[in-house]
Amino acid sequence: MGKRKVNILEQAATSVAEIAYFIEGKGMPLTAKRFVDGVFEFFATISIDELDHRLCSYSRWKDLGYQCVGYKKKYVVAYLSLQTEIIICDFVVAKLLKD
Questions:
Q1: In whole angstroms, how far apart are CA 44 and each of 8, 48, 90, 91, 98?
Q2: What gap in Å lies between CA 21 and CA 68, rounded to an integer?
Q3: pTM of the predicted model, to two decimals?
Q4: Partners of 69 in the beta sheet?
Q5: Count of C-beta atoms within a 10 Å radius of residue 85
Q6: Which parts of 26-75 fold into alpha helices (H)?
Q7: Average pLDDT over residues 55-59
Q8: What is the predicted pLDDT for the residue at 73?
Q9: Contact, 79 vs 61, CB < 8 A?
Q10: Which of 69, 70, 88, 97 has the fewest CB atoms within 10 Å, i.e. the most exposed one?
């Protein structure tokens, strides 16, 4: 079971940071730190060679060939799956995705 290299685009990293900032603003800095750590650990699990997810149902991402996976039933991770690497393209709150 091999792993591919994980690259995270600035847009995805910024989205994670904004959500963490929101959590921190609610007076929960430790929870915000755990959230960020959990998200980046999750990104690493996507890189397993045998793991493959479906194409995104959100039409704009589907047209770009992104694959999607849910994170904690509340967020969606959109990524490109290449032979030697995974490119994390976006991270959003699932209920914000509308066609």
A1: 10, 8, 15, 14, 27
A2: 24
A3: 0.87
A4: 77
A5: 13
A6: 29-45, 59-63
A7: 90
A8: 92
A9: no
A10: 70
Bridge partners (DSSP) listed for residue 44: none
When pLDDT is averaged across residues 42-51 and rounded to a whole number, the result is: 83
Please give the average per-residue pLDDT across 32-53, as a whole number. Answer: 89
pLDDT at residue 37 tops 90 = yes
φ, ψ (nearest 5 deg) of residue 77: -105, 125
- Mean pLDDT on 80-90: 92
Place 99 in a pLDDT band, splitting at 50, 70 and 90: low
Show the tokens assigned to 8.
């995270």
Q: How far apart are CA 79 and CA 3, in angstroms?
A: 15
- The two structure tokens encoding residue 80: 């490109």
What is the structure's pLDDT at 51?
A: 72
Mode of pairing for the β-strands spanning 75-81 and 85-93: antiparallel
Amino acid identity for residue 76 in this structure: V
Report whether 66 contacts 54 (CB < 8 A). no
